[in-house]
Write a structure and sequence with these properties.
Blueprint: H1 4-7, H2 11-16, H3 26-39, E1 43-49, E2 53-60, E3 66-68, H4 74-77, E4 84-86, H5 99-102, E5 109-116, E6 122-130, H6 139-157, H7 164-175, H8 180-187, E7 193-197, E8 203-206, H9 208-214, H10 232-248, E9 252-259, E10 265-276, E11 282-291, H11 293-330, H12 335-355, H13 371-379, E12 390-394, H14 401-420, E13 430-438, E14 441-449, H15 462-474, E15 478-484, E16 487-495, H16 496-499
Parallel strand pairs: 12-13
Antiparallel strand pairs: 1-2, 1-6, 2-3, 4-5, 5-6, 7-8, 7-11, 9-10, 10-11, 13-14, 14-16, 15-16
Helix pairs in contact: 3-6, 6-7, 11-12, 12-13, 12-14, 13-14, 14-15
Length: 507
């Protein structure tokens, strides 16, 4: 456990990650109800300790929703590594004058299990309270309260879809596996569906949540009957993955559609871990099913919004190109400049379309996420039917939204100049473009051959300045030109980290 000073560092930011003001703590209410029954006390609370108060996310036997922190028992309980108990608060100098002892709810006995997140930081405590002094909890009650506190944290971490929740449930299930009665009692209070199997995979137990969700008669999904609960399109996949886990002992994890009692299917995350004996033999599998349908729907909704926004941006490129074309028709003297500008804007549009968010039906047909993909789009108007006028060789490094725009402008200018003045202006002309890694850089060589005689440029035009700006300013690279007699040759060195964020840490 961290020292006391460090515990209070930016506590508001720590608690904000759990979105406590959003409500929806029905599962925690079930836990406090069971904790009160388990420990035979009138009051049980899930208390989160903030800077100036403690708030009760779930409560049984108490109307108050919060109390000041300076009278909080849980502020003490959360700082320990084990269960914190006060047999008689009137006889404890720390609490004898506490307003919660001298007044309602007249606390005498208190026991609290600390709520600690995955980073080892305390949030509060799961506590049970009695208005009569009493001896300490029994070993089973202490174990049960500790396990329930862990389940509270599983529920809180699950609020931001922390998949470690499933592993925590498996660890909790393993901790109570030695006592089947206690395991079943605690499992029925959990908000997730819990199941267990024999070492050979025979399903012999489901908790109450399973039967509430599926609506099937108890025992009807024992053995292999569980597979029939999945969507027909998911059954073979789920069964094959389960057989693989049984054969190898590897953890089971899969997303599938599970039939609900209404007859509809909801996406569910299934996970299971093997319990092994001292010799490493699997003695049981403990698994969980978590409804993730709402989270998947949210992700799909975000993808739709991103797609719509990207579509509108692409339309803006088209509108700008249309305005340039209209201006050129009105002022024929700028038609050449307008055509060049419109082509450059359409190159930007192709770059945007290549790296924009894609759904399952809108992915590019090839080169998804790589340099070759965007080059093939830029070069498409200059290729013959066989695609042999511009030949790509070497590696296909990843690119992202930062590099796509300058790369599109750069190679659009090269291809356009080659078509107007260089190798691509002649039927037999060819361009070879090779890509290779050169230390921390990506080296790209553009080599023209078979075009008209080449003479070095006497002045630097807009296109040359645009290429220099794209390579040096935007990509942080360098460029050399070689005006060879058989065609222009250009070499580029671009840092791997400028091509793609994912390459920045591996360059």
């Amino acid at each position: 456990m961290a020292d006391g000073c460090g515990l209070e560092t930016d506590r508001a930011a720590l608690l904000a990650r759990y979105d406590l003001d959003a409500g929806g703590f029905d599962a925690l209410d079930q836990i406090t109800s069971f904790a009160a029954t388990l420990c035979d006390v009138p009051i049980a609370l899930v208390s989160i300790v903030e800077d100036d108060r403690q708030r009760f996310l779930a409560r049984t036997g108490l109307d108050a929703e919060e109390t000041p922190r300076d009278v909080s028992f849980c502020a003490h309980a959360m700082l320990g590594d084990a269960l914190f108990e006060v047999p008689d608060a009137r006889l404890d100098p720390r609490f004898a004058d506490n307003l919660l002892v001298t007044g309602a709810p007249h606390i005498r006995f208190y026991a609290g299990a600390p709520l600690v997140n995955d980073d080892g930081l305390p949030l509060g405590a799961l506590c049970v309270i009695d208005d009569r002094p009493r001896a300490r909890l029994t070993d089973m009650q202490r174990q049960g309260l500790t396990l329930l506190a862990r389940q509270v944290m599983v529920e809180l971490e699950g609020r931001h879809r922390d998949r470690a929740m499933i592993a925590q449930q498996a660890r909790d299930a393993q901790a109570v596996a030695e006592s089947d009665r206690l395991f079943r009692t605690l499992a029925d209070t959990m908000p997730q569906m819990v199941w267990s199997t024999l070492p050979d995979g025979y399903h012999d137990y489901y908790n109450a949540r399973w039967y509430e969700f599926t609506g099937v008669p108890p025992g009807s999904t024992d053995g292999e009957g569980w597979n029939g609960m999945f969507h027909p399109d998911d059954q073979d996949r789920a069964w094959a993955r389960w057989r693989h886990s049984l054969a190898t002992g590897e953890p089971y994890e899969i997303e599938y559609r599970l039939r609900r009692h209404r007859g509809d299917y909801r996406w569910t995350l299934g996970r299971a871990l093997p319990i092994r004996d001292a010799d490493g033999r699997i003695v049981r599998w403990i698994g969980t099913c978590t409804d993730i349908n709402d989270q998947i729907a949210m992700v799909e909704e975000r993808e739709v919004i991103a797609h719509e926004l990207s579509h509108r941006i692409k339309n803006i490129f088209s509108v700008i190109s249309g305005l340039i074309g209209l201006s050129a028709r009105t002022h024929p003297e700028i038609s050449v400049v307008a055509d060049d500008l419109r082509d450059r804007i359409m190159a930007l549009g192709r770059a945007h379309d290549f790296v924009r968010p894609h759904g399952p039906h809108s992915h590019p047909g090839h080169g998804d996420g790589g340099l070759w993909g965007i080059l093939q789009q830029i070069f498409a108007p200059y290729q013959n039917g066989g695609g042999d006028r511009i030949v790509l060789t070497g590696e296909d490094p990843a690119i992202d939204d930062r590099s796509a725009t300058p790369l599109a402008l750069l190679f659009h200018e090269l291809a356009t100049n080659a078509a107007k003045y260089g190798a691509l202006s002649m039927p037999e002309g060819r361009v070879r473009l090779s890509v290779e890694r050169a230390g921390a850089d990506i080296r790209i060589d553009w080599s023209e051959a078979g075009g008209p005689p080449v003479t070095p440029a006497t002045s630097e035009g807009f296109g040359s300045r645009l290429m220099q700006l794209s390579v040096e300013r935007q990509l942080g690279g360098r460029m050399t030109r070689d005006w060879r007699t058989d065609g222009l040759a250009i070499s580029l060195w671009i840092p791997s980290g400028s091509m793609s964020r994912s390459s920045a840490g591996t360059a």
